[in-house]
Design a protein that fits this description.
Structural class: alpha+beta
Number of domains: 1
Number of helices: 3
Helix content: 40-55%
Distance between the termini: 42 Å
Number of strands: 3
Radius of gyration: 13 Å
Order of helices and strands: EHHEEH
Shape: globular
């Protein structure tokens, strides 16, 4: 078995999924996907057919828009 090329902190907790973002924003998944395609959600990268969103950058994005978050 090969050792991972990524540090141990680079795991599923590092990124959010489209479903998780949709739940946080209380909107339809299709709306979130449209926002991702338009570059309206920072820290997002498309890997194959899946979007991954940096948890840290998304939390910063939310804090800037919702001061009490």
């Amino acid at each position: 078995m090969h050792a991972s090329m990524f540090p141990s902190e680079f795991d599923d907790k590092t990124f959010l999924t489209v479903n998780e973002i949709s739940r946080i924003l209380n909107q339809k998944i299709a709306t979130t996907r449209t926002q991702l395609r338009r570059g309206q959600i920072p820290g997002a990268v498309k890997i194959g057919k899946s979007w991954k969103i940096s948890r840290a950058l998304f939390e910063e994005f939310i804090r800037e828009r919702v001061p009490h978050y």
